[in-house]
Amino acid sequence: MNKLTCIIVDDEAISRNTLENYVQKYCEQVEVKALCQNVEEGLAAIKTHQPDIVFLDIEMPYGDGFDLLDQVESINFDVVFITAFSNYAIRALNLSATYYILKPVDIDELVSAVDKIRERRTDNNETSIQSKILLDNLKVANGQMQRIVLPQLSGFIVVPVNTILYAQADDNYSIIHLMDGKKHVVSKTLKFFDELLCDVGFMRIHKSHLVNMSGITEYKKGKTAQVKLSNGTWLDISIQRKKDFLEQFK
Asked: Are residues 79 and 165 in the same domain?
């Protein structure tokens, strides 16, 4: 396979140079075409070099990384965000299944991101869809995320967050149950979805279940408390989580 090309967009010279050195030393299959210090230079470099990958800092003066994506007419490159950004932005990145690396850059994470991009660089439209979902989720009011990307072996599916009824643990996988009765197996742990959705109306009621609180229709007390969901499913509430659960209904 031919070398992939990339550009680096970061307002800090030290960060740009460090990342360039890492890419050159540890990602031999990637060629750095340009170093850019702001959105304007990044847009020009994308137009000139048509890179396969854009390593993009989020926080920059005079426009952030999301502003750059918003100004690109057709996103036919993969984006790897390099960031020390807020939890809210990280949640949006995870919802859209977008690659990101926290500062300071970890070499293993960099190599892993590049390897994953090489493995799946067969459908440029996939990248465009993910970026659109990311921007939509960042723009919505009150931090209420709209859509989530669920990776599949054959690609991914996109579902509105509020259509998820509950998520069920299955070893290192999760089974996502939707309001309409459909379910999808995703290669992410329940802990991943717990951290991702805990601030948008979901609650971990058991080590095996994460529920959409709006989908609960009935509560049954007892030695083992249970909740009934809108599809008729009954789920146990663990003793350790019962108090926190009941607090939500005071």
From this structure: no
- Total domain count, the chain: 2
| 115 in the same domain as 86 | yes
Domain that holds residue 169: 146-247
Last residue of some domain: 139, 158, 181? 139
Look up tokens 């989908």; give the residue: 215
The pLDDT value given to residue 87: 66
Residues 129 and 22 in one domain: yes
49 and 79, same domain (yes or no): yes
In the predicted model, is pLDDT for residue 136 greater than 50? Answer: yes
* pLDDT tens digits along 98-109: 888 988 999 999
